[in-house]
Amino acid sequence: MRDGGLDVKDPARGKGITEAGPEYESAAADCRGVIGDPPIYNWTPEESARVHEEYRAMAACYRALGYDVPDPGPEEAISVPEGLTEDEFLSCEPAAN
């Protein structure tokens, strides 16, 4: 992504990148085509429960901003709504709340 000219911060362990937007989605797809899917992190049951609650809180935050986002299931990732700005994304991050 950086080689493609995007300013991307190093992700926290198990989190992924925090930048959002069509240009990042496109770049991520291009990167997966070159290097493959990212490695899978095996969560402990406690981590999985904590992350699931964080995802539910993020979904609620997106809904409060006017986006139609369902709560993720127990083993599902959060769906980032189309049109979400980077500032909105960051405001809904668990660390921001």
Structure description:
With 97 residues, the protein is mainly alpha-helical. It has a domain at 41-96. Helix content is 42%, strand content 0%. It is built from three helices and no strands. It has helices spanning 22-35, 45-64, 86-92. The longest helix is centred in the middle third of the chain and has 20 residues, at 45-64. The radius of gyration is 14 Å and the shape is globular. The mean pLDDT is 87.
Question: Sheet bearing the most strands, described?
Answer: none
Structural class: mainly alpha
Strand percentage lies at under 5%
What overall geometry do the principal axes of the alpha carbons give? globular
Spell the H/E element sequence.
HHH
CA-CA gap between termini: 28 Å
Features:
3 helices; mainly alpha; 97 residues; 42% helix
Task: Give a quick precis of the structure.
This protein is an all-alpha fold.
Task: Spell out the blueprint of helices and strands.
Blueprint (H helix, E strand, L loop, with lengths): L21 H14 L9 H20 L21 H7 L5
Helix pairs in contact: 2-3
